[in-house]
Design brief:
Oligomer: single chain
Order of helices and strands: HHHH
Number of domains: 2
Structural class: mainly alpha
Distance between the termini: 54 Å
Shape: elongated
Number of strands: 0
Radius of gyration: 25 Å
Number of helices: 4
Length: 137
């Protein structure tokens, strides 16, 4: 098993574990204990440093885990959308894999679809249906 697969499995398991309500309750408990010990430690710099260091380290590591999970989820959604486009009769296969295109190309597609939407809204306001296929005209 390579390092990428190992990390991916770890990130998925860690994100699943950390997303549980019990883990959130545990984190709140840690904060409550930290606040409650403030008077005991006279709200010292060391007392503040403990929570600041701990939360910074956890936040730093969680950013990578969350990004990995988000990347995987986004990729799965994009593949599902690509499959819907591919399997829909009359759909434009050029729209497959749009997320990989340069911003200029995406802007051209956006302009085209904004014009189609504008025309459909105008026709809807005129009492016509907006459920046709524009290319069929």
């Amino acid at each position: 098993m390579n390092l990428c697969n190992l990390y991916s499995r770890f990130a998925k398991a860690a994100a699943h574990f950390c997303g549980r309500p019990s883990v959130f309750v545990f984190a709140v408990g840690v904060i409550v204990v930290w606040v409650a010990t403030g008077p005991l430690f006279h709200f010292s710099d060391t007392w503040q440093l403990v929570i600041n260091t701990g939360t910074t380290i956890i936040t730093f590591l969680m950013v990578f885990l969350i990004q990995n999970t988000q990347n995987r989820d986004t990729q799965a959604i994009q593949l599902k959308l690509d499959e819907l486009i591919r399997s829909t009769k009359g759909a434009h296969n050029a729209l497959l894999d749009l997320e990989e295109l340069e911003i200029g190309t995406l802007d051209k597609f956006r302009t085209k679809y904004e014009a189609l939407a504008r025309k459909a809204r105008e026709e809807l306001e005129a009492g016509k249906l907006d459920t046709d296929t524009p290319e069929a005209e």
